[in-house]
Amino acid sequence: MPNKAKFIKALLFGKEIKTVKIDKGTVDFYMRLTTFHSQFRAVGVNYNQIVKLLYRNFSEKKASAFLFKLEKQTIEMVVLCQKIIQLTEEFEKKHIIKQP
User: Fold this and answer.
1) pLDDT tens digits along 33-50
2) What whole-number distance in Å separates Cα of residue 11 and Cα of residue 42?
3) What is the DSSP annotation of 67-98?
4) Of 8, 73, 76, 96, whose CA is between 20 and 30 Å from 39?
5) CA distances from 7 to 20, 42, 73, 92 (A)
6) Burial per residue of 68-77, b for 16 or more beta-carbon CB atoms within 10 angstroms, e otherwise
7) Count of CB atoms within 10 A of residue 58's CB?
8) Residue 12 pLDDT more than 80?
9) Neighbours of 19 (CB within 10 A)
10) pLDDT of amino acid 62
11) Following DSSP, what letter does each residue of 43-65 receive, concatenated?
12) What is the DSSP letter of 1?
């Protein structure tokens, strides 16, 4: 309602009043998830820059060795990302999506 007088008038004359419940925990969850997604994208940008720098500044053999280590870390990050997606889906099922 734009002001208290209209709200009181609506109450007195029996008009339907709609209320909106905001779950601060859910809002906080999505804000943190958005922040995390931004950081995850930044890692991807840095990943591309690292690969270019490796090939520019090191020999082929040394760059390949570093890339192998980077690949192992990337695989761990993929597993972590899959767990995050799974936890997010579970959270949505339990707390956000309401079954009729």
Assistant:
1) 888 888 888 887 888 888
2) 51
3) HHHHHHHHHHHHHHHHHHHHHHHHHIIIIIS-
4) 96
5) 15, 47, 58, 33
6) eeeeeeeeee
7) 14
8) no
9) 4
10) 92
11) HHHHHHHHHHHHHHHS-HHHHHH
12) -
Only one residue has tokens 């009043």, namely: 17
* Distance between CA atoms of residues 29 and 35, nearest Å: 10
CB distance 70 to 50 below 8 Å: yes
Q: What are the tokens at 49? A: 């820059």
User: How far from 15 is each of 3, 4, 22, CA to CA, in Å?
Assistant: 15, 14, 22
Where do the domains of the chain lie? 23-96
| Stronger pLDDT, 98 or 18, i.e. the higher one | 18
Residues 58 and 50 sit within 8 Å (Cβ to Cβ): no
Give ∠ CA 94-96-100 in degrees, rounded to 5. Answer: 85
- Report the alpha-carbon distance of residue 48 to residue 32 in Å, rounded: 25
Show the CA angle centred on residue 16, arms to residues 1 and 8, nearest 5°.
50
